[in-house]
Amino acid sequence: MTQIPLARRSPIPPESCNLASAIEVVGDRWTLLILRAALYGVRRFDDFQAELKCPRTVLSGRLKGLVDAGLLVKRPYKAPGKRARPEYTLSAMGLSLRPILIGLTQWGDAWLGVGESPPISFTKAGTKAAIRAAFVDADGREVRPDQIRTVIRG
Amino acid sequence: MTQIPLARRSPIPPESCNLASAIEVVGDRWTLLILRAALYGVRRFDDFQAELKCPRTVLSGRLKGLVDAGLLVKRPYKAPGKRARPEYTLSAMGLSLRPILIGLTQWGDAWLGVGESPPISFTKAGTKAAIRAAFVDADGREVRPDQIRTVIRG
DNA sequence: AGGTCTGGATTTAGAAAGCGAACCCATACA
DNA sequence: TGTATGGGTTCGCTTTCTAAATCCAGACCT
Question: HTH hxlR-type domain: from which residue to which, for each copy (chains A, B) (predicted)?
Answer without folding.
Answer: 17-116
